[in-house]
Amino acid sequence: MRILGLDFGSKTVGLAVSDELLLTAQGLEIIRRQSPNKLRQTLARIEAIIAEYQVECIVLGYPKNMNNTEGERCEKTKEFKEMLERRTGLEVILWDERLTTVSADKHMMESGIRREDRKKYVDEIAAVFILQGYLDYRSMHVEK
C-alpha cells in the first residue's frame, strides 16, 4: 500500500508518495496548469500516478488560516477533494498544512538552494511535508 500526498494550489499541485511501509514520503513532481479552473489534465495525471504507484489513499493539504479559521482556499480544496474522490474512488484525507510552505522554503534555504530556484520546488517539498506529517501521526496513533 502507498499513500499519495498533495499540496493543492491555485495553479500547481505538488505530489509526494509514501514508501510501501508507510514510513517516508518522497517528492514526485509538480503539476502546473494555466488556469485555476482547468483541472482535467491535473486529475488525469494524478490518476496515472495512482495507477503507477498503486496508491490506496490520498492525503490532501488543507490550508487553514493561522487562527484555525477556514477561508476561500479551504472551500476550493474541499471541491478538489470531492472531485478526487469521484474520479479515483479513493479515500481523500484532509490534512492541516499550516506552515508547510514556510517549512519547505526554510529546508531549501538550509540546503543551499538559490532563492530564484526555490519556487520551482516549493510545492513538491510542501507535499512531502504534508504526507510525512500524516505518516508520522498515523504511525503513532494506529493500533499496532
TrEMBL record:
<dbReference type="GO" id="GO:0016788">
    <property type="term" value="F:hydrolase activity, acting on ester bonds"/>
</dbReference>
<keyword id="KW-0690">Ribosome biogenesis</keyword>
<comment type="similarity">
    <text>Belongs to the YqgF HJR family.</text>
</comment>
<keyword id="KW-0378">Hydrolase</keyword>
<keyword id="KW-0540">Nuclease</keyword>
<dbReference type="InterPro" id="IPR006641">
    <property type="entry name" value="YqgF/RNaseH-like_dom"/>
</dbReference>
<dbReference type="InterPro" id="IPR037027">
    <property type="entry name" value="YqgF/RNaseH-like_dom_sf"/>
</dbReference>
<protein>
    <recommendedName>
        <fullName>Putative pre-16S rRNA nuclease</fullName>
        <ecNumber>3.1.-.-</ecNumber>
    </recommendedName>
</protein>
<feature type="domain" description="YqgF/RNase H-like">
    <location>
        <begin position="1"/>
        <end position="104"/>
    </location>
</feature>
<dbReference type="GO" id="GO:0005829">
    <property type="term" value="C:cytosol"/>
</dbReference>
<dbReference type="InterPro" id="IPR005227">
    <property type="entry name" value="YqgF"/>
</dbReference>
<keyword id="KW-0963">Cytoplasm</keyword>
<dbReference type="InterPro" id="IPR012337">
    <property type="entry name" value="RNaseH-like_sf"/>
</dbReference>
<comment type="function">
    <text>Could be a nuclease involved in processing of the 5'-end of pre-16S rRNA.</text>
</comment>
<dbReference type="GO" id="GO:0004518">
    <property type="term" value="F:nuclease activity"/>
</dbReference>
<dbReference type="Pfam" id="PF03652">
    <property type="entry name" value="RuvX"/>
</dbReference>
<dbReference type="GO" id="GO:0000967">
    <property type="term" value="P:rRNA 5'-end processing"/>
</dbReference>
